[in-house]
Amino acid sequence: MFHCIPLWRCNRHIESIDKRHCSLLFVPDEIYRCRASLEELLLDANQLRDLPKPFFNLTKLRKLGLSDNEIQRLPGDIANFNQLVELDISRNDIMELPESISYCKTLQVADFSGNPLTRCAHVLSLPQELGSMRSLTCLDVSENKLEHLPEEMGNLLSLTDLLVSQNLIDMLPEGLGKLRRLSILKADQNRLVHLPESIGNCESLTELVLTENQLVSLPRSIGKLKKLSNFNCDRNLLMSLPKEIGGCCSLNVLCVRENRLTRIPPELSQATELHVLDVSGNRLLYLPLTLTSLRLKALWLSENQSQPLLTFQTDVDPESGDKVLTCVLLPQQPCESENKGSDNLARCGALESLVESSVLDDTWDDKAPNRMSTIRFMEDDEDEDDEERTLLRRATPHPGELKNMKKVAESIRKDMNAAKGLDSNKNEVNNAVDRVTTSV
C-alpha cells in the first residue's frame, strides 16, 4: 500500500502544487516549506478569506490561482511577486487593488473579474500605476463596479486582450489608441455614451464587443480598423452608422440589432468579406441596393426570421429617387422593448409589420405600414350612405400565410367533393330502388 508523503518530509524539488476544490479555510503551512522552488500554486475554489504574511514569501511563483474564494483584501505585499507571470484572483470579494501591484513587472495575464472593485487607490478607477506594467498582455476586470479607466492604460503597449465588460464605465480613455497590439476589446454592459476617436489607431483589433451600452453614434475612425472581423454593437441607441465603416475590409460579422437605425450606408458594401449582417429590431425603411454585391450568408431583419436569407425586390426611394432593396419585413417597426404594454402576440412567419396591435412610440414615423386605409368610389348620388360605398384595404398577406390559406381551401374543396360524391351515390341508389319498385 502506498501512502502520501507529507510535504514537510519530502525532499523533492517541488515546482507545482494543486490544491483546488479542497475546502481549505487557510493556506496549509507545508506550502511555505516549498518557497525555494515553488513556481505554480493553484488554490482556486476554496474558502480562503485571508492571505497571511508568510504567503508572500513565495517569491519564485510564476503562476498563482486564487479564483472562487472569499478573499476580501489583496495586501500590498503582492509586490513581492516580482516573477509572477499569471495571476487569477477572479470571483472573490476584493474591493480595492493596491498600488504596489505595479511592481509585478513580469505579469502578463491578470484576471480581476467578478470582484466588487469600486475603489482602487481611493478613487473610483484602476490605479494609475497599472500603466507601468509593460509586460501585461491580457487584463480582465469585467464584472466589477468600475466607473473609470485611467488614461495611463495607454502605456500597456503589450496588451492584446482588454476585457472590461459589466461595469459602470461611461467612457474609454483616449489613450486607448496607443494600444497598437490590442486584438480583443470587450466593453459590453457598461454605460458608454461615445467611443474615443483614437480607437481607429488600434490597428490590430479583430474583435470589438460594445453590446448593451448607450452609444448614439460611432466615430468615423472606425473605418481604419482594417483587421476587424467581428463587431457587435447590439442594444445601443445608434441613430446611424458612419459611411467609413465600409473601410473595415476584414469585417466578417456585423451585429447592430435593437438600435434606432433608419438606414444602412451604401458604403457598407465595400466591406467585401462581410458574411453575416444582423440589423433586426431597428427602424429601417429599406436596404441599399449595393448590398447585392456582398456574398452574404445571413441577413437578419427580424428576430423570428425563419431563414437566414430572404428574397428582395428593387424599389425607389421617394425622397432621394435612388434604387433600394425591400422585402416583406421592411419597413421595420420598433422592437418589442419599445412597445411597452403590448401583448406578446404570436407572429406568423415572424412578420412583425403585420401585427396590427403594435404600439408605436412618439419618435417613430406615424405613417405606419400596417394602418388600415380606405378607397372611396365616386358615384352620382352623393346622398347614399358612405359606408356602403367604401372599400376597406388591408395589408397584403405574407406568402407563408397565402400558402396556409391555399392548403385550407384545398382541404375544404376535398371535403366538399367527397360530400358531393356521397350525395351522388345516394341519388343513384334511390333511383335504382325507384326503378325496381316501378317494375314490380
Number of helices: 1
Q: Assembly state here?
A: single chain
Structural category: mainly beta
Low-confidence region ranges? 1-5, 339-382, 386-394, 436-440
Counting DSSP E segments of at least 2 residues, the number of strands comes to: 18
Mean pLDDT: 83
- Give the helices and strands as they follow along the chain: EEEEEEEEEEEEEEEEEEH
Measured by DSSP, the beta-strand proportion falls in: 5-15%
Global Rg: 34 Å
Percent of residues in helices comes to under 10%
What are the SSEs and their pairings?
Elements: E1 16-18, E2 40-42, E3 63-65, E4 86-88, E5 109-111, E6 138-140, E7 161-163, E8 184-186, E9 207-209, E10 230-232, E11 253-255, E12 276-278, E13 287-288, E14 298-300, E15 313-316, E16 323-326, E17 373-376, E18 390-393, H1 399-439
Parallel strand pairs: 1-2, 2-3, 3-4, 4-5, 5-6, 6-7, 7-8, 8-9, 9-10, 10-11, 11-12, 12-14
Antiparallel strand pairs: 13-16, 15-16, 17-18
Task: Give structural attributes.
13-stranded parallel beta sheet; single chain; mainly beta; disordered N terminus; 18 strands; disordered C terminus; 9% helix
